[in-house]
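FORM 7B: Structural annotation worksheet

SECTION A. Query
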Amino acid sequence: MKRKQLRKKRLLLLAVFLMIGFGFMITKCSSDEEPKISSSKEAVFLESKQPTEQIELHQNEQFEGIEDLLKDSRLAGTTTAISIRRASDGEVLYAHEGDTRVRPASVMKLFTAATALENLGASHTFETKVYTDGKIKDGILEGNLYVQGGGDPTLGEEELKSLALAVKERGIHTIQGNIYGDDFRYDDVRLSQDLNWSDEPYYTGAQVSALNFSPNDDYDAGTVIVEVYPGAKEGEEGRLRMVPKNDYVQLVNETTTVQKKGDKFIEAERLHGANTIVVKGTIPVGNQKSKVWASVWEPTEYTLHLFERALKKQEIVISTERELRRQKLPKEATLLAEKSSMSLADLLTPFMKLSNNGHGEVLVKEMGQVKKNEGSWKQGLDVMAQTMADFGLNTDTLLFRDGSGMSHKALVTANEVTQLLYVAQSKSWYPTFQHALPVAGNDERFVGGTLRYRMTNTVAAEKVRAKTGTLNGVTSLAGYVEKENGEDLIFSMIVNNHLDEPVYELVDHFVIMLASDESD
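SECTION B. Predicted structure
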């Protein structure tokens, strides 16, 4: 009862403010130019922006729990940006530091995915082709093979096997020449401009090439998996195995087998500028294998070594004096084989649900190539910025530095993130975009993704689809909340500059409050 009375008093106070404000606006706006309304189909989306101060004044009661959340000691000294919109019309219902620029971490992938769907289309694929500049005589190829990369981040052992088999089926059993990799669809800049040196040896910072290899069905392109097994007894080295098996990468074994109840801790780090991976740690006797990922140096040559291996498995003889290196495809070359990747619609599942950094960077370069005839970060990021401007976002307050969110210099605002999510609903590709988002509390890896262990057994489970983000000092989450007894919501919460203490719990509590119908 007291709460209802308090609400009436607040509404009465609001009415007084509005009456005073209306009188002021009549005087203030009488000489202003008549507002212009866009004729585009997104016009309705561009009229929903409101000043943050006004939002916080009249919507405080509905989201009063957020104010208490912001007082938590774990957020002391942070910049915490929050934006909540009504999904049906895009009206901003609540904002805290909503127009303050913050680092997004992997929430940046929302911008990359939306731009890729808009400019490449959900059916877009990446092509890998094999050519020769020579002639085939009696099963002998007198000339070179060229593997031309089309940026496919899903190219794996099965795809290389298929291409090698196609070469064999052209009647080739001996190659008297070199095997070259044409990766010139993209430029030769392998790492995004802000990638930390400390991230570069690991799979999260893998190099980007138009000709790349992925060792698994997560499609971690440009990486190798190291499997570590315990030795027969305590004190022995662990046993190492690489996936895929290859001689391009060398392993240094510094692992130790420990007692059955000992600690299990394995790490692998590639030495800078080389393909030597140092594997360290302990693994208990009788334990299951442990897997770690590491990036490779120069992914084009890595792919060529693996393709040569695939050819040899088809019993194709290759000269021991052959070269494996980058080389542009000559104009007059004969196509021998080709392989298409999965569609962009399917690629978005591992990209968004597993937050695959490499996919984000490939998509940026691919958009630069398709739209501006240059497969570079510069041109791809320009496409992203222009697309966001076309969507009605305020690009003057956004700074795009990569496609994955690994950059500590990239900047967005919580309000522009929710505006993007609102505009996305009007697009024909929206079902694909929405489907790719992680689902809170769903333990299926390719459904729940990075949210599969979060918000379980709460009202938010299965009701929230959102993109996670994590960097040192950054925790973010942005997406959609489906409500049973109220209007669906769009939200963004981005916390910057927190220390080592994790803030996932606070972010999840925020979303659970939104999913609860008690706030209506």
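SECTION C. Observations
The longest helix spans residues 2-29. The mean pLDDT is 89.

SECTION D. Sign-off
Analyst initials: ____
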